[in-house]
C-alpha cells in the first residue's frame, strides 16, 4: 500500500472497505478534493467510536444503495441525513436473470449494461450527492465494491480522473475485503471474480477502463435527469 492509498483508507472499526475519494490524479493536472466524498462497505457494524470518527470527518449525509430489506439500524448520529436509494431494480427479471445466470453481476463486466439499462437509478443517486446538505457524503452498499464502485466510477469520470486511477481505486476493494471474507468464513470472492472475468478473456482493470472509455459522463448524467446545476455541484464537491 503506497502512502497516498494509506491516507485515503479510513480505519473505521467495523468497516473494511472505506476510503476517501480525494487525492486521485486528474487528466490535465490536479487531483480530487479530500474530505468531501467517501465510499465504503456496510457501516452498520461500526462501533460507537467509529461513528464518532465518521462524524468528526464532517460526514453529514449517508446514502445506502442497498435494498430496503438489507438495511438495519445502526449507531449513527442524529444529525446525519440517511438516504436509502435502492440502486438495483430487482423487478427487471430479464436483466438480472441474464447477469445472475452468467454469474457476472458481481463483476465490472456488468457495469456498461447496468449504465445502459438503469440511467434513472444512477441519476437519482448522483442527484442526491449533488444536492446533499453541507458536509461530507458517504455512499455505500454491502461490500462497497460493485454498486458503490459503479457510482464512484461515474463521479470520478465526471471530474476527469485518470482512467487508470479509477481502475486502481476499484481494485483496492480486493485487498480490503479479504479480512471480511475470512471473518465470515467465506472463500475470497476476489479469486472467484478473477476466474469469471478471465473466462471472458479480460480483466477487472480492463473492464473498468472499457466502461470509462465508453462513457460521456456529462451527457449521461443529463440524460439521467441531472440539471446543469447538479452537475456543477458534483464537480464543486469533488474538485
From TrEMBL:
Residues 116-156 form the Tyrosine specific protein phosphatases domain. SUPFAM superfamilies: (Phosphotyrosine protein) phosphatases II. It comes from the Bacteria. Pfam families: Y_phosphatase3 (PF13350). GO terms for molecular function: phosphoprotein phosphatase activity. Coiled coil: none annotated. InterPro entries: Prot-tyrosine_phosphatase-like (IPR029021), Tyr/Ser_Pase_IphP-type (IPR026893), Tyr_Pase_AS (IPR016130), Tyr_Pase_dom (IPR000387). This is Tyrosine phosphatase family protein. It comes from Actinocrispum wychmicini.
Amino acid at each position: 500500500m503506497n502512502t497516498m492509498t494509506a491516507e485515503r483508507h479510513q480505519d473505521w472499526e467495523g468497516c473494511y472497505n472505506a476510503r476517501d475519494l480525494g487525492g486521485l490524479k486528474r487528466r490535465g493536472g490536479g487531483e480530487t478534493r479530500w474530505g468531501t466524498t467517501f465510499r465504503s462497505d456496510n457501516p452498520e457494524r461500526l462501533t460507537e467510536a467509529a461513528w464518532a470518527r465518521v462524524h468528526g470527518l464532517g460526514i453529514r449525509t449517508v446514502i445506502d444503495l442497498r435494498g430496503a430489506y438489507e438495511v438495519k439500524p445502526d449507531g449513527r448520529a442524529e444529525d446525519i441525513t440517511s438516504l436509502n436509494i435502492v440502486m438495483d431494480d430487482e423487478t427487471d427479471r430479464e436483466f438480472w436473470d441474464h447477469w445472475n445466470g452468467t454469474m457476472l453481476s458481481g463483476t465490472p463486466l456488468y457495469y456498461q449494461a447496468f449504465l445502459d439499462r438503469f440511467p434513472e437509478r444512477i441519476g437519482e443517486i448522483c442527484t442526491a450527492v449533488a444536492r446533499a446538505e453541507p458536509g461530507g457524503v458517504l455512499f455505500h452498499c454491502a461490500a462497497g465494491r460493485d454498486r458503490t464502485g459503479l457510482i464512484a466510477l461515474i463521479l470520478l469520470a465526471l471530474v476527469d480522473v485518470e482512467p487508470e486511477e479509477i481502475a486502481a481505486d476499484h481494485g483496492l476493494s480486493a485487498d480490503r475485503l479479504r479480512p471480511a471474507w475470512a471473518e465470515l468464513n467465506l472463500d475470497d470472492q476476489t479469486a472467484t471474480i478473477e476466474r469469471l472475468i478471465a473466462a471472458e478473456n479480460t480483466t477487472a482493470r480492463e473492464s473498468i477502463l472499457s466502461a470509462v472509455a465508453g462513457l460521456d459522463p456529462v451527457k449521461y448524467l443529463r440524460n439521467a435527469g441531472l440539471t446543469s446545476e447538479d452537475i456543477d455541484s458534483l464537480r464543486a464537491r469533488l474538485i
